[in-house]
UniProtKB/TrEMBL annotation, chain A:
Transmembrane region(s): 21-39, 427-449, 499-519, 539-562, 574-591, 597-616, 628-650, 688-708
Residues covered by region (Disordered): 454-491
Swiss-Prot/TrEMBL GO biological process terms: attachment of GPI anchor to protein
Source domain of life: Eukaryota
InterPro entries in the cross-refs: Gaa1
The organism of origin for this protein: Chrysodeixis includens (Soybean looper)
GO cellular component: GPI-anchor transamidase complex
Protein name according to UniProt: Glycosylphosphatidylinositol anchor attachment 1 protein
The entry's keywords: Membrane, Transmembrane, Transmembrane helix
Bias type Basic and acidic residues, positions: 459-491
Coiled-coil features, chain-numbered ranges: none
Pfam families referenced in this protein's UniProt entry, alphabetically: Gaa1
UniProtKB/TrEMBL annotation, chain B:
Species in which this protein is naturally found: Chrysodeixis includens
Protein name: GPI-anchor transamidase
GO biological process, one term: GPI anchor biosynthetic process
Keyword Mitochondrion included in the entry's annotation: no
Listed GO MF terms: GPI-anchor transamidase activity
Length: 715, 349
């Protein structure tokens, strides 16, 4: 096979074929990817779930749970306590919980944590978690299971969790005298939703708030005190909030610990009279619990006689025909993909995953749930504390049998139903096809500029027929010129056909540095806003809009600043090729970790990437129109604009009766909130979305914009 | 007169297989056996709580052979995991082989000779071939001779041509066959009865080439051996099918019963086992129909019963050998605990 730099290959057959067919081929790849993704919902393309872990022995043991009465009692007492003493305050009833857990002879501890809000005027939030440890009677405390429930105040707009906490206490009462526990069980009640859970997990794993940032705090050898880039030296007089590298969440310390946590079950039950259980699995950055745990929970729900669901897939609904099954599977999968894009966990279980702990949330739902009505939910039999307790007992006894961490089954998968899954090997091809389309496009561009170059050199030295000499002159002459050009930094360019790689490289690097700067800008923006007493979300959102507009206007002139003289067709083509390669690499590598995010980026940016090409001066009206269309498309997929548009559309879907202006204002408010959430999530929990968008996607977008706005001479 | 009857409390037993006198009569239904002692090697190769049933399997066989008369000193019991003391066991210090939990096969006097990580392929082969380190205690040695009948029972997880030991290593059928051949050449057995209860168990005996081996397996190649039932109070599969039916059969065998080996080989029909029990007879010289089951499972040796009184107070007179008389009794002394002469030599030299 010939080398790509071989000047002769212009005449090779595959090159000619590629040049002719690359357009339709790329389009077919794109279409193929979407079709493939659509097919994944079909039963022929996904598999039935199965247990890989032998040790679980699910459901073999007789259920002995007898705490129905005590669960009811705990529930009533807890509700009474909240109404009597905590009606107005959003505080967790620490004395009551500690008292109850102590009565059950658990080792009870409380855990305090503090959040220094990173944006704005430095608000400080405090919270308390309560946890009790049931020590395994016949073994050392080397391993643990966690049963957790978030505490929600009465006036919280979210569903309460009183029944979950009561169930947990009743289960603790039942489990305490049993002699078969081989792992400790930690009963944990957290405050402030995910914040409390994050603080507890960090404290449990010995993380402190003086580590650099959350991204580097796990598995990093960076220690505070090592000199690093000190930003304040660049701008004296301006106070940098991030300068002292304190994490905004201070997890504090735990007074009591157990062993390494093997698995966690998070309970969100408002009332015992639920109709079905929704098993929530999505975690931070799209991480998922091991499929074995998910299977286990579904299977034991079946065995305990509790209806269960996963998104659009309901255990009590069976499709009438294949088409129904397919659509149902597709929408379940699609729903899962959409909710995973933002990387925000849909329950407290999602924070466990990054610590290597498998966790799921069991959410109890009634017939008229906020999450949307389920078909025929009214006719289902109502669950009670007994059945819930039996299910919890069965799950924990099965987890108790574990000998190693969950590792046998899949970590990367999509679920098409409660009992059907799509493994990574089955869904990756759809993402790969998108990236292949971009790479084919890159290859065809490379081939065409090479050949153009060949033609020119052929014209220049027509005397030399030998291809070898031809090649030498091709590689040496521009190289020499480049060196001359760079070293004395001459302002004028002698040869139009020469390529200045350094020039392009500088532009490329600068654009990425801009992205990195935007990633770090929210703290500065919020501080500037705080000076004018603006709320941080407003200042950050409008600040980002301003930055985006400035960048949109300025960046097309960036290459000119770096280089006196016109940028050439070849240079811009090279940028285009590099850009396609970068984008496809980013999509693939992100897709390995968080497939939905990678897929979303690829689906949105591939059309632009395939249509984007170097703009040549001149041309007719049709060409100008096409160019205009491409520029509009490019503007539309600007990350910030795309988010805002999505939110506006979403608010249109939710509130169809409102006018256009209301819709826009509501949508932009939502976009503002979304931006703010993603920034805060990135700072507190280590969510990648904001960092990825600003540091990688934004530079890629800028490069596309540059290519589409700079007109060059035809080669 | 020969009887296999041990009802009479006062018997005068002369226990040797070489004392068949001319007056002896062999019962017509059984063939004569040459063995002089019985040994059993019972191995559970798998650990972990979910393999409870394998421990129950091996302890069931242990219980039977012990009940039928093989003493603990002649049973080598290898168990990889301590199920009785597993913290997950809701019935601490017991192992049951039936959901009714009537028989605690762990019992009061189980002597486990190799346990935990000592159960390895190396130790197993060394045990069989007798190539153990010199400091090995007697309880960990298979002290058999050319008159020994050995029962080998293996259980665990197997595949086509191998048996897995402890999730970490495996013994292949060829290695096992070679080990048995070594035993034969070293005259370490008279006859072997080889039982294996694993998946694809019959693959383990297909490579055997040494004489006098009767082998049976719970399943043929390509078949799985299945567990019998779950004890939902303990929460595990409690015993494998084959061993369950073997135990059911053995519970009705007594030291004096006249069951034959062929009955044992047919103990688990396919309807009960769900797998086909494999048997290999070609290496075995006797007809299994005519071999009493106690030749392998019990320690019942040929017995001469005499009705004539023997005066045991009258000690039999030994032949006085003149050479013994003249021989000076050997002078015995303790060895020095520390080789002082070496040290003294070193000092002087």
């Amino acid at each position: 096979m010939g080398l790509l730099s071989d000047p002769e290959y212009g005449s090779v057959k595959w090159v000619r074929v590629l040049k002719r067919v690359h357009g339709p081929l790329c389009f077919l790849c794109y279409l193929g990817a979407l079709v493939w993704f659509f097919m994944l919902g079909n039963k022929e393309f996904n598999n039935e779930t199965y247990f890989s872990e032998n040790a679980l022995l699910p459901g073999l043991v007789t259920n002995e749970f007898n705490g129905e009465h005590s669960a009811k009692q705990f529930y009533n007492e807890f509700m009474q306590e909240l109404e009597d003493k905590y009606n107005d305050v959003e505080e967790i009833p620490v004395p009551w919980l500690v008292g109850k857990m102590s009565q059950l002879h658990l080792e009870v501890y409380t855990h305090n944590f503090t959040l220094n809000y990173p944006l704005g005027q430095g608000q400080v939030y405090k919270g308390t978690n309560v946890y009790g440890i049931l020590r395994a009677p016949r073994t050392s405390s080397l391993e643990a299971l966690v049963v957790s429930a978030p505490f929600r105040a009465l006036e919280s707009h979210q569903k309460g969790t009183g029944a979950g906490i009561a169930l947990m206490l009743a289960f603790a009462k039942f489990a305490r005298p049993q002699k078969y526990w081989a792992k400790d069980i930690i009963f944990l009640i957290t405050e402030h939703e995910q914040l409390g859970m994050q603080a507890w997990l960090e404290a449990y794993h010995g993380l402190h708030n003086d580590a650099e940032t959350f991204h580097t705090s796990l598995g990093s050898f960076w220690k505070p005190g090592i000199p690093s880039l000190d930003l304040s030296s660049f701008m004296p007089g301006f106070e940098w909030a991030g300068g002292d590298y304190k994490k905004c969440l201070d997890p504090g310390t735990l007074k009591g610990r157990s062993g390494s946590i093997q698995a966690a079950i998070n309970l969100e039950f408002d009332t015992p009279k639920i109709k079905y259980i929704e098993v929530k699995i999505e975690g931070l950055n799209g991480q998922l619990p091991n499929l074995d745990l998910v299977n286990l929970v579904h299977k034991l729900c079946v065995k305990s006689g509790i209806h269960h669901s996963f998104r659009n897939s309901y255990s009590w609904i069976r499709g009438r025909n294949k088409m129904d099954d397919w659509m149902n599977g597709f929408w379940t999968m699609f729903d899962m993909v959409v909710s995973q894009i933002d990387g925000v966990p849909d329950g407290n279980h999602g924070l466990f995953h990054r610590f290597g702990i498998e966790a799921v949330t069991l959410e109890g739902r009634g017939p008229a749930d906020a999450a949307g009505p389920a078909p025929r939910a009214h006719s289902l039999s109502t669950a009670n504390f007994y059945r819930l307790g039996v299910a919890l007992e069965a799950i924990l006894r099965s987890l108790n049998n574990l000998l190693e961490r969950f590792h046998q089954s899949y970590f990367f998968y999509l679920l098409a139903a409660t009992n059907r899954f799509i493994s990574i090997g089955q869904y990756m091809p759809s993402l790969c096809l998108l990236c292949v389309a971009m790479l084919i496009r890159a290859l065809s561009l490379w081939v065409s500029i090479q050949q153009d170059g060949d033609e020119e050199t052929d014209k220049q030295d027509t005397k030399t027929k030998s291809p070898k000499i031809d090649k030498d002159s091709d590689s040496e002459v521009p190289g020499d010129e480049k060196v001359e050009e760079v070293k004395p930094r001459r302002k004028s360019v002698k040869d139009d056909s020469s390529m200045s790689v350094v020039n392009i490289g500088a532009n490329y690097l600068l654009v990425h540095l801009i992205g990195y700067a935007v990633m770090n800008s929210p703290i500065i923006l919020s501080q500037i806003g705080a000076r004018y007493n603006k709320p941080s979300e407003v200042s950050v959102y409008y600040g980002l809009i301003a930055v985006s507009i400035v960048l949109t206007i300025v960046t097309p002139f960036l290459p000119r600043v770096l280089r006196k003289g016109r940028i050439t067709y070849e240079e811009l083509s090279l940028v285009n090729i590099l850009l396609l390669i970068e984008l496809s690499t980013v999509c693939l590598s992100v897709g390995m970790q968080n497939f939905p995010l990678g897929l979303a980026i690829a689906v949105v940016y591939t059309p632009l990437a395939l249509m984007c090409s170097v703009v040549v001066k001149g041309g007719g009206k049709g060409r100008a129109l096409y160019l205009f269309f491409r520029r509009v498309l490019c503007l539309l997929v600007h990350p910030l604009l795309a988010v805002s548009l999505c939110m506006i559309l979403f608010s249109r879907v939710l509130f169809p009766e409102e006018g256009i202006l209301d819709m826009i204002s509501r949508g932009s408010d939502a976009a503002m909130q979304a931006t703010m959430f993603s920034i805060v999530d990135s700072m507190i929990y280590g969510n990648w979305l904001f960092n990825l968008t600003t540091a990688v996607i934004l530079p890629i977008w800028i490069l596309f914009w540059q290519i589409l706005t700079i007109k060059v001479e035809a080669p | 007169m020969y009887l296999n009857n041990v009802i009479y409390p006062f018997l005068f037993i002369i226990a040797t297989s070489f004392t068949f006198t001319s007056g002896a009569e062999i019962p017509e239904e059984f063939l004569k056996s040459n063995h002089s002692n019985n040994w059993a090697v019972l191995v559970d190769t798998s650990r972990f709580w979910f393999n409870y049933r394998h421990v129950a399997n091996v302890l069931s066989i242990y219980r039977s052979v012990k009940r039928l008369g093989i003493p603990d000193s002649q049973i080598i019991l290898m168990i990889s995991d301590d199920m009785a003391c597993n913290p997950r066991n809701p019935r601490p210090a017991t192992i049951f082989n039936n959901a009714h939990e009537q028989i605690n096969v762990y019992g009061d006097d189980v002597e486990v000779d190799y346990r935990g990580y000592e159960v390895s392929v190396e130790n197993f082969v060394r045990l069989l071939t007798g190539r153990v380190p010199p400091d090995t205690p007697r309880s960990k040695r298979l002290l058999t001779d050319e008159g020994s009948n050995i029962l080998i029972y293996l259980t665990g997880h197997g595949g086509d041509g191998f048996l897995k030991f402890q999730d970490s290593e495996e013994i292949t059928s060829q290695e096992l066959a070679d080990a048995l051949e070594q035993m034969w050449q070293k005259r370490r057995y008279n006859e072997i009865f080889f039982i294996i209860d694993t998946c694809q168990a019959s693959s383990m005996y297909e490579k055997f080439y040494s004489p006098n081996i009767l082998a049976t397996a719970s399943s043929l190649v390509g078949e799985d051996s299945l567990s019998h039932h779950v004890d939902s109070a303990i929460g595990v599969y409690i015993i494998d099918r084959y061993t369950y039916y073997v135990l059911e059969f053995l519970e009705n065998v007594h030291p004096n019963s006249k069951r034959s080996m062929s009955e044992f080989l047919a103990v688990c029909p396919k309807s009960a086992c769900l797998s086909t029990v494999g048997v290999r007879r070609d290496l075995f010289k006797r007809n299994p129909d005519k071999v009493p089951i106690t030749d392998f499972f019990g320690s019942v040796r040929p017995v001469i019963i005499t009705t004539d009184p023997i005066n045991i107070l009258d000690t039999p007179k030994r032949k006085k050998k003149p050479e013994n008389k003249t021989k000076v009794p050997e002078k015995r002394e303790y060895l020095p605990q520390f080789p002082m002469h070496l040290v003294q030599n070193a000092r002087t030299g």
